[in-house]
Structure to design on (344 residues):
């Protein structure tokens, strides 16, 4: 078997862990991968001698690519809202290392089934309402038009051009522009609250002895449309539920949000339309991100999730007259493109 390549960054991380001192008595040689995400960040679990934290998580966020400060700030905001987040136990911003409380390894995705889903999603909806109810102006960057547009641009750049090897005609570009303008107008008109941006089954943890869920991966949080995180939760790229079930959970969340005096639309039909249109923006972005993760970053694990995300995309685009040109575009792409090396 070929030897694994030397990892100088891991050596640097272990040296930092060893230097945490006797209060932690952390064993650098016990570092094992805990998880990775779709960025340059990595996470390692380490054993310590601390009575309250026998294990902890070390976040490796290379300063050339990542900034730990937004994570620390959002952790404070969400924690103050009464949500379970991984407390920052030690930090070294110059090197890009954080020592975090260990929320375990049981993700929602690993535990969700027909018997557990109602309870887990009830807990998640309660946590989401607490986060949104804590919203204060000026704390988080705005999910503004420029950011929403950059996300939408990932679809033609990475999914269409790179993944499908297709080029949009002038007429198709005009259709794309018309659809995205309609989406942006809807998204920007929605009430603004704290938005996690990836509030889904891989970033929510099932906990013992603490309030569910444990919430991870929130460093990209913004102030944006109130339906965004609900879409992430119930139209999850990694697990599918029947639409009738999605609707039931969404109604329960909407009722809870209204009781908390959150600015959800008092007409559920209008709220649901906002939910769907926000979801379409998100899913077009995700198609682009998953394609980029494969073609740019060599991460092929997300390819298996493309069909579900495309299913969500087509369902919503087919329901609204203003979005039907997207169906025409997708049909043309499906007929013209032939991705090389794999099929779905």
């Amino acid at each position: 078997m070929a030897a694994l390549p030397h990892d100088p960054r891991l050596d640097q991380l272990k040296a930092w862990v060893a230097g945490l001192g006797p209060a932690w008595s952390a064993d650098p040689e016990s570092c094992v991968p805990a998880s990775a995400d779709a960025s340059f960040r990595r996470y390692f679990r380490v054993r310590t001698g601390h009575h309250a934290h026998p294990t902890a998580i070390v976040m490796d966020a290379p300063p050339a690519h990542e900034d730990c400060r937004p994570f620390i700030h959002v952790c404070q905001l969400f924690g103050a809202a009464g949500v379970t987040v991984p407390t920052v136990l030690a930090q070294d911003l110059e090197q890009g290392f954080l020592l975090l409380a260990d929320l375990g390894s049981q993700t929602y995705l690993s535990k969700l089934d027909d018997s557990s889903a109602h309870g887990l999603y009830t807990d998640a909806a309660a946590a989401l309402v607490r986060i949104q109810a804590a919203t204060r102006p000026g704390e988080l960057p705005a999910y503004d038009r420029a950011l929403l547009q950059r996300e939408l641009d990932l679809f033609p750049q990475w999914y269409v051009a790179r993944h499908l090897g297709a080029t949009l005609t002038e007429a198709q570009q005009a259709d794309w522009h018309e659809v995205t303008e309609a989406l942006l107008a809807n998204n920007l008109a929605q009430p603004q609250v704290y938005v996690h941006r990836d509030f889904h089954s891989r970033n929510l943890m099932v906990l013992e002895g603490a309030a569910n869920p444990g919430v991870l991966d929130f460093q990209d949080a913004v102030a944006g449309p109130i339906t965004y995180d609900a879409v992430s939760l119930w139209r999850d790229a990694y697990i599918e539920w029947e639409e009738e079930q999605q609707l039931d959970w969404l109604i329960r969340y909407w009722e809870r949000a209204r009781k908390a005096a959150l600015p959800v639309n008092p007409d559920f039909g209008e709220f649901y339309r906002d939910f769907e249109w926000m979801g379409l923006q998100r899913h077009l972005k995700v198609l682009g991100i998953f394609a980029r993760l494969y073609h740019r970053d060599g991460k092929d694990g997300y390819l298996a999730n493309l069909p579900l995300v495309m299913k969500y995309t087509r369902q919503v685009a087919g329901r609204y007259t203003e979005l039907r040109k997207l169906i025409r575009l997708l049909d043309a792409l499906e007929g013209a493109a032939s991705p090389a090396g794999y099929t779905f």
